[in-house]
Amino acid sequence: MTELLDTPSLTTELRHLAGEGALDLPLPAGGRTWERWRALAALGARDLALARLAEGHTDALAILAEAGREPVPDALYGVWAAKSGGTGAKLDRGRLSGTVRFCSGAHFLDRALVAADDLLVEVDLTREGIERDASSWQAIGMAESDSADVLFHELPVAPDDVIGSPGWYVSRPGFAHGSCGVAAVWLGGAEGVLADVAAYLRSREPDEHQLAHLGAMHTAIRATDALLEQTAHAIDAHAEDPLSAAVCRAAAENCATTVLDRAPKVTGPTPLCRDRGFAQRMSDLLVYVRQHHAERDLAALGREARYDGAMR
């Protein structure tokens, strides 16, 4: 079973990946969407905290490209858009204020695309007027993602720093495509757990119950992988249906939940207690997949599906 990266080496690895071009992924809807998502899934299988930061950077690059803008060379980007618990950034008379939660890479990213009400703002994170609250990130799962609260104190914003018109960020086609990229990372996290469980079983003689759980996890992963691939090809052909992104996210969440439920039934408590890498991987996946809002997202999907005449 693998040893996961700590924060200093994770930061170094992220910059190394960016420097060698490994994070310059094909843009969504450009004919190679599946290649993009498989790259994100591979990072998720390797280390979910690293993949979270990589996904944010690649999503930011895709957003900038969709807006017809160039990223700052050699900068690591994030997308900070959470409005958890009534928090969030606001842009008022050219000044950015407020608290944004779950800002992955809060202490070491160079730039971020920050959602402020219905606008998106590109922010140089080296400027004064930006405060990171290190005490806010008390996580065990995804601990190394450095997803602290960030406070903006009346930060001046130039007109050129505003990306798109009001509402553009969430209404553009790439918003749904980006959400599928996150689902690909969740899938990769499930693949990483499955690989660890399979390695565990190769070192002993499994019983039929352990094999049944392994088979169920493998089936869930393969089915989700197939759905994401089908959706990626539909996006490239401009033929995806309006519900496709929500279905991909729901399928990936269900897959991750299946793996999180069944993996400990195979291994028992021993690797959870004696293998830090495996325990961290399980905890990371448990936290990260909760970006999906469970029954609330499923209810929204069902509400739309009721009137979707193309349901199959």
From TrEMBL:
It holds the Pfam family Acyl-CoA_dh_1. Keywords: FAD, Flavoprotein, Oxidoreductase. GO terms for cellular component: cytoplasm. This is Acyl-CoA dehydrogenase. Residues 167-287 form the Acyl-CoA dehydrogenase/oxidase C-terminal domain. The keyword Chloroplast does not apply. GO terms for biological process: fatty acid beta-oxidation using acyl-CoA dehydrogenase. The keyword Oxidoreductase applies. SUPFAM superfamilies: Acyl-CoA dehydrogenase C-terminal domain-like, Acyl-CoA dehydrogenase NM domain-like. Belongs to the acyl-CoA dehydrogenase family. It comes from the Bacteria. It comes from Amycolatopsis acidicola. One of its GO terms (molecular function) is acyl-CoA dehydrogenase activity.
